[in-house]
Every structure is written in C-alpha cells, then in structure tokens.
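Technical appendix A lists one of the benchmark inputs used to test multi-chain prediction within the project. The record comprises three sequence entries:
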Amino acid sequence: MSEEFKVEIKPENLVYQKPALTTDATMHYCPGCSHGTVHSLIAEVIEEMGIQDSTIGVSPVGCSVFAYNYIDIDWAEAAHGRACALATAMKRLNPGKMVFTYQGDGDLAAIGTGETIHACNRGENIAIIFINNAIYGMTGGQMAPTTLVGMKTATTPEGRRVDLHGYPFKIAEMLTHLDGVSYITRQSVNNPVNVRRAKKAIRKGFEKAMAGKGTSFIEIVATCNSGWKLSPVEANRWMEEHMHPVYPLGDLKDI
Amino acid sequence: MAKIKGTIVVDTERCKGCSVCVAACPSEVLALHRSVNSKGYNFSYMENPDACIGCANCAIVCPDSCITVYRQKFDTAPVR
Amino acid sequence: MEEVRLMKGNEVLAEAAIRCGCDGYFGYPITPQSEVLETLMELKPWETTGMVVLQAESEIAAINMLYGGAATGKRVMTSSSSPGISLMSEGLSYLAGAELPCVVVNVQRGGPGLGTIQPSQSDYFQATKAPGHGGFRMIVLAPFSVQEMHDFVGLAFDLAFKYRTPVMILSDGVIGQMMEKVVLGPQQPRWTDEYIAETCMDWALTGKKGRGRNIVTSVDLDPNSHERFNLKLQAKYRNIEENEVRYETVRTDDAEYLLVAYGSAARIGEKVVEMAREEGYRLGLLRPVTLYPFPTGPIEVLSRQVKGILALEMSAGQLIEDVKLASQCRVPAYHYGRTGGVVPSPGEVYEAFKAHFPK
C-alpha cells in the first residue's frame, strides 16, 4: 500500500470484524461452506437485537450438528429431523425467549418434514433457518429431497431421475399454504449483496418470532462444494445457474 | 479531494483458502498466498493492497469470519 | 383438608401432573390412555398454574417436545401406550444421552404390533432393559392402584430431577381404566424461571445470562471421551440401584413359597395369596414397585427362605428372567402369564401354582 494512504488499524477505522458472538472455535465445515456465512449472520442478528442472553438455538443432525460450537448462546442438539418439536416446547414453556432452529435439507425436508409442517401449521413463534444445499453433506453426498433433477449424488450416480426419486421438494412453497406461518423467504449467501439480504431476512424472521406473529421460515439456498465436487467459487456459480432457477430467491409470504 | 481507502487483516490460521473472498472483491485486491498456514491452506492476503476500498465484501462472504476490515477517509491530497 | 375422589387411573395422572407443578404435557391420543390428554384439556391448567398442554402430531414429536422442554429445565411429561412408546424410543435415548429429566407414562396394551387395546405387561423388557438404543437405563415405577398413579407422578419428577434421567411410570390398561378412591395431593407451585435458572444453572437452557452458555447434546465424536461419559452414566445407574429400589411384600415373613408380580398382576397376586393361605400354603407376595432398579436383593434374601417362586405377569415371561437372576436359581422359579390383553383370574393362577408346587 502506498505510504500516503496507509489505513491505520485502529478501532475508529473498523468496518467489519468477526461477530462477537462467533466463538473462536475453528469451524469443522469444509472450506467455502455456506454454513459458516449463515452462522455469522445469525450471530450478528442476535448481537444487534441484544438477545444473546435470552436466545436458544436448536441444531440438527447433519453437517450443522455442531453449530452449537460456533455461536455463543444456549443450544440444544436435536434428534434427526426433530428440531421443530424441541423448539415448539422450548418456546411454549419459555415465551419470552427467542427460539430458532437451524436445519439442513435432509433434516428438515426429509426425516423432519412432519415436525416442520406441524410447527408451522400451529404457528409456533419460532424462526426456522433452513439450509438447502440439495445434498446430504455429513453422510457423504447422498440425494436430498431438494436434489435437482439430473443432479449426481452418491445415491443418484447417474443423476436424480424423476421416475425413481420424484421431484425436488419445494417445501418453502408448500408451507405458504399454512396459516400459522407469517414469513417465508428464500435467500442465498453466494455474493455480498445476497449476504446482506439474507441477514435482513434473518433479522425480520427473528423479530416476527419475538413479536408473536407466528412461524418464520428462512430458507438459504446454499452450496456444498465437497458434495457437489466443485471448488467453492465454482459451486457458487453452479448454484446461481442451476439452483436459483428451481429455488428462486425472494419473499414467498410476508403477512 | 477525499479518498476512501481500506485495508484488511486476515486471520491466516483460521483461513481455509476457499477463495470466496477473492471472488467477492470488486477491486481485485485479494489472492491466495503461495505459502500455507499450519493446516496446509493457502490463506487469503492482499496481493494488490492499494486497490482496497474497505467495502468489507470479502469479510461478509467469508464462511470462517477470518477477515477484519478497516477503512479511512483521506480528506486532503498528500504532499509529495 | 384431605381431598378424596373416585377417579380413573388415567384421569388421576392428569390431576396429579397439575398438582405437582408440572410445566408441560405433550401427548398424542392412543387407547387405553387418551383420558390423560382429554382430562388435561378439560381442566385447562394453563389458566390456573400456567402449565402448557399440547396435542402433538405424533408420539415422535411428543417425546422430542419433552426433550426441548426438559432442556430448558422445565418439568415435562407425556403419556402413551405400547405402540406409541415404541415410537418414543429414539427420543428417550436422546433424553438419556443428554441427561435430561422427564416423566413418561406407558399405559400398556397387548402387543406386538398394533396388538389389542386390552391390558398387558408385555413392555417390561422394553422399559427395563432397552427403552432405546445405546445402553441406557431409565427408572421404572409400576403403580398397582389409582392412588399410586397419583403418587408416582410427583415421585417420578423428583427422581427425574435428582438423577437427571427419564423416568417411566409403567402402568397398564387395568390401572389406567379402573376407578378407585384416591386422595389427591395439595397444589404445588410450579418452579419459577428464576428458581430453574439458579438450581439447574450448570445444564438448563435458560439463556446464558450471568453464566457461560449451556449446551444440551448427546453427540461426541471422540470414542474415549464418549466412553468416559458412558462410565459416568453407569456410575449414576449404580447409584440409582443402590438407593432407589422400592418394593412391597405381603405375608412373606413365614412364606414357604413366593409369588412375584407387579402392577395390576400384583392385585391378582394378592388374591392368590389369600386363596393359597386358606388351603394351607404359606404363600407370600413380593411386589416390585421399581422395576428398574429391580429389587434383586430382597428376592435374593427370600430365595433362601422359600421352596419355590412363581412370577406372575401379563406377558409370555419377562419378569421371570429378573426373578431367576435375583434368586440365582437357588429354588425352582416358574412363570405364569397371559398375553394379548387377557387378564388372568386368581383361580387360574392358583391352579398353575399348585401344579408347579403340589403339596
């Protein structure tokens, strides 16, 4: 850097730093994984809302099983798919607390579909963060309910076939029909603009849950570059080209 | 004329060299270093620091929260 | 003043839950215990004590609601019947693995599969040996009267929090559907949030105000540290086995023969003892009140005194295995039972007893 314009490293000049609620633990996620970015956004939102002492997170089974290691709040780790059942009881028994779940596509849209739908239908005052990367990351890249048609995975080596496996599960669209849900949005964290939008959406979802407006459902279309066998940057590009047309971004419901 | 300049500090040990920040930088400041950290990752660094505008795009897309961003406004043209 | 009422076992569970300060009940209808949820919905405790009552979408959801509620230090409870308890197996394992307290009632019916809706005791193995995967134990209380259906709810919560473990009340369709006189306990206040935050500070998710964060989990990728955790659990179980064995005896002082039965079978057993005594058999009854921990010691002692043992249960022979282990096969021990929802008569049990132990 030219000496003339050397930016001084001092607090007044600070623009961005690791959220205070993000712990120092090194995340176990693969390089470039979207989970870390979303974790940061959640940490920032909780921090900015000043609710770190009254927030309970529920982590799933899947890659984000250890989400509790990375955001410095109280956490429970749920059985596979059951996060929304845990969150239901947590919130009903502790109405003053902010309760949110953090779930992947296998957890939320396969084994936990029932719990998700019923929590939404009851209008539980919780926020659901749904990471949709169209694959089972933790178990080694098998087909998820949200896997795209033709997409190769460990259990669809020649690509997902509709006649064998049915269609990509658009659970966010499905949930729009439930009266208990007040906010459904689909976001992505593939570029800075979308990261900022996703943060706003998470904040809105948390605020609605705290205001007792019913369930908020924030889907984040995400990458799994290891599962997709692409570099992180290529994975973002692939997601934009292939995932976003099937899972278009934006608000699906906001009442 | 006012000039906005930025700089970043990379937590090189935390960095996994995913290069998502490199792609997100609008000013082509960043690159992966030739050397590696203790985990064997080529960490991110400012290859072209003069171009940094402190927009923080790199930091907010970073999955591992490795990047701290500073920005400073220089009001007067420096005297040569 | 004592409050005495004539009530069904299932209704009493609901009444007792409210009175002992339960924070939340989460359940799914299944015969023969649906009256528990129905009674709670009628009593509307959310308007009085603030207790939450919720009809879940499944037993799987219900047990996981318990997991969530228990994780926040609340006193939570569910009830179901045999097939529904099977669905709760995974959740129970998570609760045990995360060392969370909760109360689960099983009003047993005949199995396997959908089976019958009549009373049975065929879930003894499931309750006492393997309520779920992973080698955990659960305290199991076996009520034999409507009064005990009442009393054991509070006791179960006390034990659940004392040991931070799931506790099961293993009842059956007889006790659940039967009406009896019951003395109701006074209304206890629910624990306040402040009390929970203070007493459950080292584990409950009450928000990390004033402390480091708490994490409720059962996962650990390091086998060595997970073995240490398992050893800690086992130490807890040994502690429970040493301190929480409960049982009752009827005329065992001079007994030459011993009948072992729990729950509704023990009621039949009491009659069998009377019949045998009338004909000169010195028969006594031991009724395990805790099925886990099992009254191994007392049965071992009695096995040195008697000539033979009959284990009576409404199953094809489950309790008998623990009886044989406890008596170390020192004397002949036989099983008598009926299955599929059939309740044996005292007469047929007595005949079976005489066939095994002729004069």
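Residues 247-356 of chain C form a domain with the Rossmann fold fold (CATH 3.40.50.920). The first strand of chain C starts at residue 3 and ends at 8. Comparable benchmark entries are summarised in Table A2.
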